[in-house]
Automatic annotation (TrEMBL):
Molecular-function GO terms, alphabetical: ATP binding
Entries under InterPro entries matching the protein: AAA+_ATPase, ABC_transporter-like_ATP-bd, ABC_transporter-like_CS, P-loop_NTPase
Keyword ATP-binding in annotation: yes
Pfam families noted in UniProt: ABC_tran
Organism the protein comes from: Roseomonas haemaphysalidis
CDD domains in the record: ABC_Iron-Siderophores_B12_Hemin
Protein name, as recorded: ABC transporter ATP-binding protein
Domain ABC transporter: residue ranges: 5-239
Gene3D superfamilies per UniProt: P-loop containing nucleotide triphosphate hydrolases
PANTHER family: ABC TRANSPORTER ATP-BINDING PROTEIN, HEMIN IMPORT ATP-BINDING PROTEIN HMUV
Amino acid sequence: MTAGLVLQGVSAGYRNRRVIEALDLPPVPPGTLLGLLGQNAAGKSTLLRGIAGLGQTRGTIALDGTALPALPAAKRAALVGYLPQSLPPPSPLVAYEAVLSACRAVRADLGPQAAEAAIERAFGALGISHLALRRMSELSGGQRQMVGLAQVMVRSPRLLLLDEPTSALDLRWQLSVVEAVRDAVRATGAIGIVAIHDINLAIRACDQVAVLAHGRLLAAGRPAEVVTPAVLAESFGVESRVEACSQGVPVVLVDRALPRS
Ligand SMILES: Nc1ncnc2c1ncn2[C@@H]1O[C@H](COP(=O)(O)OP(=O)(O)OP(=O)(O)O)[C@@H](O)[C@H]1O
């Protein structure tokens, strides 16, 4: 049995359209946060949806030796938490209730006290306890996005699939939210995959990155090894520099858009 996530020969797409073609990802060990990078329409959301069991897939998708597509939906939902790109709706529920109902939907095994403790942990880890009693309809977009993430984290899935979880967040919250997810996967031995457009944030916070281009895997590995001007030119069509900042962390500086080939 291979511990962690194995994707081999994975194709994913929609009824009339295959987007991801025969993708092989090096095994992702437990405790890893993987950043999924790539230009618009590269296939990041399609791949995350496919791993989550939405849409059409083929190939091997296995978590800790268990083939996910073979699992009953309820079991798969308990193992895999998926946060779509769209924000949770501005419902009249308070944030606590929204997270409680997400927890109950998948973790019927938790009694009231365990559920309450899990909710407090999720709010605390994300630093949003102050939002617990606010109505979803009265929260900002970024605040709702953080509650959406709490709805996934409260279930303690073994695999978190997060589609641009920082798209509505400001600088401080982008970093703290991604670091909270990284700390949670490290502490529990879960795996997180986060589709993200901010490459410098990915370099800083992710253990590994995978770069998609036109539905195929272009490169995967440690951020400092994968994020190079050549990969950025091929995947994003930009001329760039990768320079070490004063703290020694690689930083991407984009100089210009390359002409479309
Ligand atoms: N429901 C759908 N039916 C058919 N094709 C779709 C559907 N949703 C997305 N696509 C197509 O799949 C391709 C990949 O889209 P996807 O949303 O996976 O890209 P992405 O890398 O997540 O992009 P972005 O960074 O813009 O969110 C695109 O060409 C898109 O037009």
